[in-house]
TrEMBL record:
GO MF term set: N-acetyl-gamma-glutamyl-phosphate reductase activity; NAD binding; NADP+ binding
Catalysis performed (reactions): N-acetyl-L-glutamate 5-semialdehyde + phosphate + NADP(+) = N-acetyl-L-glutamyl 5-phosphate + NADPH + H(+)
Keywords for the protein's UniProt record, in alphabetical order: Amino-acid biosynthesis, Arginine biosynthesis, Cytoplasm, NADP, Oxidoreductase
Biochemical pathway: Amino-acid biosynthesis; L-arginine biosynthesis; N(2)-acetyl-L-ornithine from L-glutamate: step 3/4
Active site (catalytic residues): C150
Gene Ontology annotations of biological process type: L-arginine biosynthetic process
Family: Belongs to the NAGSA dehydrogenase family. Type 1 subfamily.
Enzyme class: oxidoreductase
Listed EC numbers: 1.2.1.38
Domain Semialdehyde dehydrogenase NAD-binding: 2-142
Function, as annotated: Catalyzes the NADPH-dependent reduction of N-acetyl-5-glutamyl phosphate to yield N-acetyl-L-glutamate 5-semialdehyde.
Protein name: N-acetyl-gamma-glutamyl-phosphate reductase
Length: 341
């Protein structure tokens, strides 16, 4: 399949290029950005020079892309893909959107949390929410896929098995991400002097992934109380950890069985039980590692998930969703062994 990437100069776009380069079914056909001036990608990222992937970054040309590509990945900031996707020939071209533009079912929810005009309801209704381990059936043959957010991915993979089986009182979530999760655009929050040797809470109970999380949990359990969620910026380049505090009477063995039964056949879920996972053990991979610990004194269960925010939280899951939609091996083209450093 021939691939076009829109938003190729961002961190997610660069990871897509790396994954496509090792995927036996994919060929990188073109790179695009809104500021595309036909300069080689290596003028921005020298690491790709003297490789077959050092292509010119072109402007977005929907007619040309629709004729030449089989699948288009949108790795653009929120608010862009919703306007560009309808310009493509959606009857013949597959689209995977890594932004938040098509994740929320209700237009009013998007406009509240993203502070932007929503996509048409018709376009939203066409999109399949691509939490890979939970929507295999819907993803098969899907032509328009909305990739989950990084926080949403880590939190939902940890909480959804519990919500599927239990009615749970409101959960408290403490999630932390590396600086790449904030995107490539410059801001005071991501300035070196602000992030170095620092830990910054931001968007407390106001992060745009929160309604996405509650929406997915509501699909498996109608009795979902509002969640309390704090997001924080870590002084590291990549990686994400979500810590979730759940009140339950279940024993440790019962909790273990819920996770083992649900994820027994999912190649990118690794269960570590009471050996709590760390961010370092998933960097450079598409894995989500899940650990848990039950405090018998308080009756609270602590669930910890870790992912690479640029892979399982973005580009890796996008390729995983493409694999599922095409009926290929789910692991095709995705790194199996994480990087140690």
């Amino acid at each position: 399949m021939k691939v076009a990437i829109v938003g190729a100069t961002g961190y997610g776009g660069l990871e897509l290029i790396r994954l496509i380069s090792q995927h036996p079914q994919l060929t990188l056909n073109s790179l695009h950005s809104l500021r595309g001036d036909n300069e080689l990608l290596s003028t921005i990222y020298p690491l790709v020079q003297q490789t077959p992937y050092d292509l010119a970054v072109e402007p977005f040309e929907p007619v040309k892309i629709s004729k030449e590509a089989d699948v288009v990945f949108f790795a653009t900031p929120a608010g862009i893909a919703k306007d560009l996707i309808p310009q493509l020939d959606l009857k013949k071209i597959q689209v995977i959107d890594l932004s938040g533009d098509l994740r929320l079912e209700k237009r009013e929810d998007y406009e509240k949390w993203y502070q932007n005009e929503a996509a048409s309801q018709e376009l939203i209704n066409q999109a399949v929410y691509g939490l890979s381990e939970w929507h295999h059936d819907k993803l098969q043959g899907a032509m328009l896929i909305s990739n989950p957010g990084c926080y949403a991915t880590a939190i939902l993979l940890g909480l959804t098995p519990l919500y599927e089986k239990l009615d749970i009182p409101s959960v408290i979530i403490d999630a932390k991400s590396g600086v790449s999760g904030a995107g490539k655009a410059l801001s005071e929050a991501t300035h070196f002097m602000q992030t170095h040797d620092n830990l910054q809470p931001y968007k407390m109970n106001a992060h745009q992934h929160l309604p996405e999380i509650e929406q997915q949990l509501g699909w498996v359990n109608e009795a979902v109380d509002p969640l309390t969620m704090t997001t924080q910026l870590l002084p590291i380049a990549r990686g994400l950890m979500a810590v979730m505090y759940v009140t339950t009477t279940l024993s440790t063995s019962a909790i273990k069985k819920i996770y083992q039964d649900r994820y027994a056949t999912d190649p990118f879920i690794r269960l570590s039980g009471e050996k709590i996972p760390t961010i370092q053990q998933v960097i450079g991979s598409n894995y989500c590692d899940i650990g848990w610990h039950k405090d018998e004194r308080t009756g609270r269960l602590t669930v910890v998930t870790v992912i690479d925010n640029l892979l399982k939280g973005a580009a890796g899951q996008a390729v995983q969703n493409l694999n599922i939609s095409q009926g290929w091996d789910e692991t095709l083209g995705l790194p199996i062994v994480p990087m140690f450093t």
